[in-house]
Amino acid sequence: MLSREDFVFTIGYDGPAAVVDNQAKRKYGKLSTRELAARGLFRAAYSSAVYSKDPKELLFVAKAYERLQEHSPAGAGAAEADPSEDVPGADLSAADITALDRLFGVFPVEVSRAIFL
After folding, report:
1. Domain range holding 66?
2. Which of 24, 48, 60, 115 sits 20 to 30 Å CA-CA off 31?
3. What is the pLDDT of residues 70-81, one digit of tens each?
């Protein structure tokens, strides 16, 4: 099983091993899901939410990404998500989660080791 930081910064797989962006891991590995989203690191934030298995974190990332799409032309700039903001709204449906998995390319995969780049 990969650590949270290894999973969050996995950029691909080489057979049974996860390929991890070690530079990003060192720089951002200790940030929470909300802090990652607030910095505009949505793939990492989504990976963190998937790893935590917390529906509130998944919803927070989805809402933060949605705000980014509504308020910035062609994805320019970072999200205006406040890490302390409470997340209102309904739960995400299975279809929503599947769409987010595909959007960010994040899927829980069981691997036992990591390769660091």
Report:
1. 4-116
2. 115
3. 876 654 544 444
Interior/surface letters 55-67, b for 16+ CB within 10 angstroms, e for the rest:
eebbbbbbbbbee
Distances (CA, A) of 92 to 2, 7, 32, 57, 95: 26, 22, 20, 11, 8
Do the Cβ atoms of 18 and 25 come closer than 8 Å? no
What is the pTM for the complete model shown?
A: 0.81
- Sequence-distant (6+) residues with CB within 8 A of 74 are none
pLDDT digits (tens, 9 = 90+) for 84-110: 455 554 578 889 899 999 999 998 888
User: Structural domain tally of the chain?
Assistant: 1
Query: CA 35: distance to chain centroid?
Result: 11
